[in-house]
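Running log. JK asked me to keep both predictions on one page so they can be read side by side. First protein, sequence followed by its tokens:
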Amino acid sequence: MAKMKTMDFNTRYHLIGRIWIIFGICLFFSVPITMCLYYQTEPNWAVFADAGIITLLIVNLGSCLGEPILYAPMLGTNSEYLAFITGNLSNLKIPCVVRAHEVYEADRNSEEYEIISTISVATSTLITIVIIAVFVLVLALANGAIDAIRANEWITPAFSCVVYALFGSLGGKYVVKNPKLAIPPLIIIVVLSIVLGFLHVSPGSVYLVIGIVLCLVTAIIQVVREKKKQAIKKEEERLAVIANGNPEIETAPAEDTEAPSDETEEVPEKEEISEEAPAEDTEA
């Protein structure tokens, strides 16, 4: 304990976070391993050769490498470990953190900022656990509830649209804020879907990778165009100032250049006076 007190804030909480991350990973793997040992079976490794699984692994690999770097400044030390161990960052934790900082603004490098992020992630996690626990208990205690839900023709199709509704509700506000960034990839994906529909081709989750790549390309093009526009605008403003002959800008350098010349002219005068004084003494 004495050693822990001597550590600084970041080192101590990074150590605690890593310990809990390792403990959580071991706990996650213990469930399937225990089931495999108890039932004396093993996973179907041939499933991992499926194209959909490979695509999902590639997408998750990119998110695993990019999300810690992208979300670390936003979450802070404590909330980052808590968010990654509980999951649902892009669709739950990050929107909660963003909304919390919109309500209460704080400096990104301050302790208040990290406290707000930690409270928002912890609150989101607790509410999610409570909601899941309530619905699990309802489904477990209500006899035939699952069968009744599956039997209803107007409820069953909704389960196949959950992912699309989730991404639509979360991405809607970003589409409204950045239409130039979102509309071109959306149009391309819709056209591609229509064409592949007529060809009876179902790319499955490849759509997700295509959409991410299109968004990245559109973002790069937009950034390059904005930089060119800013450069052109600055050049036009500079030429306009030169054409108008702004006296403030033109006289300022002239005054600076003249000041040293005055000082250099005064120095020889002092030298002449100092040279004349000895001459008068000698005559006397």
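And the second, directly underneath as requested:
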Amino acid sequence: MRLKLFRIFIFVCSFNSAIGQVDFYTKLSDSALVLTKQQVVYDPSYFTIVYPNGDVPGNKGVCTDVVIRAYRKVGIDLQKEVQEDMIANFSKYPKKWGLKKPNANIDHRRVPNLMVYFTRHGTVKPITDRSSDYVAGDIVCWNLGGDVTHIGLVVNKRSTDGKRCLVVHNIGGGQVLADCLFEYKIIGHYRYGK
């Protein structure tokens, strides 16, 4: 009898945990969609910002700011999370910008740094050409050519043909909803939540 009750308890806990994760990623997707209602000019300038919970001016941003702002709306400050990880594990992060130490103004706003962070603290998902493998709440990184990287959030809206989830990103035209999942070479596919 105790074993049966224990199994029921484990099932209920597992079910509630799964529901909580679905709710988190639905909220993350909804948060990204809200961002598309705000007027944002693409601006890759370096800004000095407060720490933690710092943000560039609300009417400016780049692709990483979409991800940062969506996560902030669900209670996760990627500026703080990335900064703390870089302080403790600086050698694990790219040195392509000539940094000698972490910089809370910019580190979380760089796609390669976010890719390292999500690899270390999230779930690395397979990179495939199957649209069904990309679901709301997933983070996708692309190589646009050369050394230019890009990032966006998969949301719970579908393409007009119903075959793919759409993405919220900022590739130059502000924070927009787009059918661009397979437009560029995918170099990273992650899921991250607490």
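Observation for JK regarding the second prediction: Confidence is low (pLDDT under 50) at residues 3-19.
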